[in-house]
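Thread: quick sanity check before group meeting

JM: Hey all, I'm pulling together slides for Thursday and realized we never actually wrote out the predicted structure for the chain we discussed last week. Dropping the sequence here so it's in one place. If anyone has concerns about the input, flag it before I start.
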Amino acid sequence: MSVIQKVIQSISSQHHHNKNLNLFYGGKDALLAWTPYTRYLLATYPQEILQLDADGQTAGLVHYLTVQAQLAFCAANQYIDVSGAAGVSLKAIYSTLLDDIVTTLSSRFHDFDNLERLHGQRLTQWLLQTNPFAREVNGIAHSHVQEVVCAEYSPAIQLAVLRLDIATMKGPVLDIGCGQNANLVRHLRQNGVEAFGIDRFIDDPEYYLQAGDWLEYELAGNYWGTIISNLSFSNHFLHHHQRSNGQHLGYAKKYMEILGALQPGGSYHYAPQLPMIEEYLSADTYDIRHYQVDDHFQNTVITRR
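JM (edit): ok, ran it. Output follows.
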């Protein structure tokens, strides 16, 4: 096994060991910690790791570390913001971490405990600055976070929840928050529907799938026949609407951009509904319908007249 493969294995061990750790916990047991394997790797292969830096491979490692951290944070709480400025500052933390590792391995005294402490402090401060609600939700009393996760549902379930009929669906179709595997997008394309998807984490990129933040994704006006978002965009919109420091204005602006991206006769299907903004839509421009999904929520189908 090459050194770079050992490093990747070490990163995997770190995420497994610290999975869903509450960085705000006041007890010592919740400190972000190096695994025995990581400590062994740093202590046993210092020159080989330094050579990775000399060979210019650290930039790729910084990118990999950042993406894995983004996945880990969002796996614990789907509302954690890891994109945009938050993503840039998170990447800077991992760049600093690798710089510190190089500095430490280049010195006579390898203070791995200090590396561990500083990295944990930086991640905690990053989370506090970019997602302060996480501290409010998790507090300091519990060593692990309260999970707020989302699932990737089967195409059949999504079609039923959003009241979509493949036979009559107007194209092209855009799935906002299509999920890492883009299950519905792939299903639609297999059935002859011109479908595209966007998500923060695309597992297997194709020309019809784009990895990115939906708030930064630009939608062409009057282009899409159908836009869908199942328990994704509207869920996050509600979350930010209910937060005192949320990005509700950004979501409201993007929501109106989505409606403006519909062709005349095109429709936007989403769940859950968004009553705080739907009530302000013009009945002359949009036909708004709600359908009960279960005892807990309704969906919305908005058709541009």
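AS: nice. The two ends are 61 Å apart (CA to CA). The chain has a mean pLDDT of 91.
JM: adding both to the slides.
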